[in-house]
Design goal:
With about 130 residues, the protein is of the alpha+beta class. The protein has one domain (about 5-130). The protein has helices at about 5-15, 40-45, 50-55, 105-110; strands at about 25-30, 60-65, 70-80, 95-105, 130. Strands 4-3-2-1-5 form a five-stranded mixed β-sheet. It is globular and about 40 Å long. It starts with a helix and ends with a strand.
Length: about 130
């Protein structure tokens, strides 16, 4: 991680309030997938190791980049991450899932966007985390 990105992360992590999860949410770390011309939405919605039945009970998916929530989406459909469901995305393990959705309503965006994600436990390498009873 470059010093510049690390500084931005530290500033956000130190200043922004931590999100208070009032909904069933999935936090998705996108700092590796949000590259080039990829939108935050596309980086967030594709190819995660998660169970479809659990994902379908979620209210929102939150994109997290360097500790800050940078996107808030309302899934309308969860699907296996296979080419038939996600054309124009790279092939991946068919056990992964993805979603189609929309940006969350303004009041939900305000609740989470720009807030700090909870600190991960030392050694936690997971790219996704559930909060709020999801």
């Amino acid at each position: 991680m470059s010093g510049e990105k690390n500084e931005g992360y530290m500033q956000t992590h130190d200043i922004a309030p931590e999100a208070d999860f009032q909904d069933r949410v999935l936090l998705v770390e996108i700092h590796k997938s949000h590259i080039g011309g990829t939108s935050i939405y596309d980086a967030t919605r594709y190819a995660w190791y998660a169970k479809l039945d659990r994902a379908r009970r979620l209210d929102y998916v939150l994109a997290v980049k360097y500790g800050e929530i940078v996107g808030v989406f309302a899934p309308t459909e969860w699907l296996p991450a296979v080419p038939a469901n996600f054309p124009n995305f790279p092939d991946t393990d068919p056990r992964r899932i993805g979603f189609r959705g929309i940006e969350a309503p303004a009041e939900i965006q305000e609740r989470y966007l720009g807030k700090r994600a909870p600190a991960k436990k030392r050694g936690d390498q997971q790219g996704i985390h559930y909060y709020g009873g999801g």
